Recover the amino acids of this structure.
């Protein structure tokens, strides 16, 4: 009886942990650094591959510094236009669908 109780508790804790893991925002890192020229607004719906942050290049153009790797909603924007970012910096957080 004690083993069944312990197994039930472990199952419940595992399920709860999985739900919490799914609810945690996913951080998105910049793959290149530079001066931010555009940032996706908080609350925007994104799909995998959606552009999240653009930076200016040395040649005067713009490139994507970060793209979404998951589908969801932008829950936090960590940079603003005009900020200088480095590769690896967390720029956006996404709540997964």
């Amino acid at each position: 009886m004690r083993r069944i109780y312990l197994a039930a508790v472990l199952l419940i804790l595992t399920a709860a942990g999985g739900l919490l893991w799914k609810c945690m925002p996913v951080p998105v890192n910049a793959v290149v650094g530079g001066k931010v020229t555009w940032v996706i607004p908080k609350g925007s719906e994104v799909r995998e591959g959606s552009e999240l942050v653009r930076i200016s290049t040395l040649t005067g153009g713009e490139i994507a510094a970060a793209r979404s790797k998951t589908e969801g909603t932008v829950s936090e924007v960590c940079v603003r236009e005009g900020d200088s970012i480095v590769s690896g910096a967390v720029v956006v957080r996404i709540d997964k669908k």
